[in-house]
Amino acid sequence: MIELQDVSKAYGDQVVLDRFCHVFATGSFTAISGPSGIGKTTLLQVIAGLLPIEKGQIVLDGQVTNAQDQILHPSVCRIGFVFQFPALWPHMTVRQNVLYGLIHQPRSLQEERLAEIITALDIADLLDKRPAELSGGQARRVSLARTLITHPRLLLLDEPLNNLDARLKDQVLAIVADYRIKQQATVLWVTHDPGEVSGLASAVGQFNPGGLV
Ligand SMILES: Nc1ncnc2c1ncn2[C@@H]1O[C@H](COP(=O)(O)OP(=O)(O)OP(=O)(O)O)[C@@H](O)[C@H]1O
Ligand SMILES: [Mg+2]
Q1: Per-residue pLDDT of the chain (213 residues; tens, 9 = 90+)
Q2: Nearest-CA residue for atom 16 of ligand 1
Q3: Range of the domain at 126
Q4: Is 205 in the pocket of ligand 1 (CB under 6 A)?
Q5: What is the pLDDT of residue 99?
Q6: Contact 98/117 with Cβ under 8 angstroms?
Q7: Where are the beta strands (DSSP E) in the chain?
Q8: In this structure, which residue's CA is closest to atom 7 in ligand 1?
Q9: Cα 83 to ligand 2 centroid, rounded to whole Å
């Protein structure tokens, strides 16, 4: 379970989260929508512990992960983030990008997870390429692979279907749905089109600075 308790976040004078409160149950799938610039990405970043907050706290399964005086790294908390813009490391191959989160794990586990994820996301042919050589949709699948391979318990997805054609959209939706069930993961899915996850989401929240409506 992830709880946001009176979380406030501002950029200078601009308040984006104002004593924001919400609880996401373990295993839930929540679609979050709202107009551009309202604060959806900011919300995911504070939940991930990538941005500090000014007030309140975020508690994941009983552990404080983000508060004024402490912030835990997402990898420590098993939080996975699929960014709105794929943000792959340009100097690494696709294989190195995807395996990055498992760098300290045994080789056998790396190979097993890699085989699983490249099949699921149809990226086997891309492993030796560099990010600059990928199309937008390929880069997006690689960024999803890089996150899922670490088996996060909380999966944060920021407009993950951008740049995908209809077939790939269905494929990514099916992979995330399957992943959530297998790993009993909690999923937060930011989208401008909540209809895209209508069959999967247990709730659709409209972003509001104080909470989800
Ligand atoms: N690093 C930053 N520094 C200053 N202002 C920022 C920063 N990041 C975001 N903002 C501002 O905070 C507000 C919320 O931005 P955010 O990216 O969270 O919106 P969003 O809902 O994800 O928008 P979109 O749907 O366009 O992705 C915007 O007005 C944005 O300009
Ligand atoms: Mg955004």
Answers
A1: 999 999 999 999 999 999 999 999 999 999 999 999 999 999 999 999 999 999 999 999 999 999 988 999 888 889 999 998 888 999 999 999 999 999 999 999 999 999 999 998 889 999 999 999 999 889 999 999 999 999 999 999 999 998 888 988 998 899 999 999 999 999 999 999 989 998 888 899 999 999 999
A2: 39
A3: 2-212
A4: no
A5: 97
A6: yes
A7: 2-11, 14-24, 29-33, 55-60, 63-67, 70-71, 79-82, 154-158, 186-190, 203-208, 211-212
A8: 11
A9: 9
CA distances from 81 to 13, 15, 68, 199 (A): 27, 23, 22, 22
The answer, yes or no, to whether any atom of ligand 1 lies below 6 A from the CB of 16, is yes
Nearest CA to ligand 1 atom 14: 39
Q: How many domains does the chain have?
A: 1
CA-39 nearest atom, ligand 1: 18
Pocket test for ligand 1, best of 14, 81, 190, 212 (most atoms within 8 A of CB): 14
pLDDT given for residue 40 in this prediction: 97
CATH number (domain holding residue 84): 3.40.50.300
Q: What is the DSSP letter of 18?
A: E
Q: Is 200 exposed, middle or buried (0-12, 13-18, 19+ CB in 10 A)?
A: middle
